[in-house]
Amino acid sequence: MEYNIKYMKRCIEIASKEIGNTYPNPLVGCVIVHENKIIGEGSHKRYGGKHAEVNAVNSVENKDLLKESTLYVNLEPCNHFGKTPPCTDLIIKYKIQNIIIGSMDPNSMVAGGGIQRLKDNGCNVEYGVLKDECDYLNKRFFTYHKLKRPYIILKWAESKDGFISPIKSQRKVFKISGDQSLKLSHTWRKEEDSILVGVQTIIDDNPKLTTRLVKGKNPIRIVLDPNCRVPVNSNIFSKDSKTIILSKNENSSISENVRIINFDKMDFILNVLYEMKIQSVIIEGGTKTIKKFLDNDLWDSIRVFKGMKNIENGIKGPKIDFNNFKQTNSGNDYLYILDK
Fold it and tell me: How far is residue 154's CA from residue 83's CA, in Å, rounded to a whole number?
């Protein structure tokens, strides 16, 4: 069956615009082509909303053309009832004969079932088109379903001489990274399902952990606090977003909108997040928190801002070799990124 990869690239393009909006669902874009012309397209925009295939079909003015068209979609169409009916039923209903698919859905409720149902109903199906690019688009969704844990991003900023924080007396006046890097950090926050810090970060800096510098949803806030030391008047207890305290102790004085979960070790923490259907977490904690994940090899992406100033005295950042990292600029800072 003939196909053109430019239409799959378009699927990826329109799907990627919804990053951060569809949890726990994947990012999906769909394009419908008739005689080498796009006659309809759509993406999945939010959990519980219409799927990409539905939006694409609905956008086609002349539905009679569908049976002579080719449908491109970056992820296998669903074959089960969830918040919405199966997309395979819609494709079959309109007799769309040619289906081009990027990734096979790793969700056990789909996992090839959508492809098989389409084939059983006479559709011509080609899958694995731009597979690597389509898999990468849904790296969070794939990690969650294949590894049974969230996609983990480790992020920090450090000075030119490798400190993540000066001595306490200087913290309120010393900025390691610039405004552009801070805004980019907030952009990353809106893309991820949750954000995790250690309790010492809350005690020292009292952060809000929101996306206030950019437009977008706030991540779920998670605090690793074994002995429940988090101050009850901390900014993370605002109603801007949900907050989860991972602790070994109970604290009845904490706000009602906060969930306290007892934990024992790293694997248990990730299991809790998995059970809560949290697909991604960006770790913005201090050296101790980040080191827990590094030491257990629990990470998928590392992102480090390196400023141009020296601190000379303070808390050292995680010891890491940047030789294999991709280096770019973020304003006056260097940005190092490494993806597994």
Answer: 33
Could you tell me the end-to-end alpha-carbon distance of the chain, in angstroms, rounded to an integer? 34
Residue labelled with tokens 């907050």: 243
List b or e across 103-118, with b for residues whose CB sees 16 or more CB atoms inside 10 angstroms. Answer: bbbbbeebeebbbebb
pTM, whole model, 2 decimals? 0.90
pLDDT tens digits for 5-59? 999 999 999 999 999 999 999 999 999 999 999 999 999 999 989 999 999 999 9
Separation of alpha carbons 232 and 245, rounded Å? 12
Tokens of 22: 């569809």
Compute the distance between CA of residue 150 and CA of residue 144 in angstroms, rounded to an integer.
5
Residues classed as catalytic: 53
CA angle 244, 245, 247 (to 5 degrees): 145
Residue 121 has a CB neighbour count (10 Å cut-off) of: 13
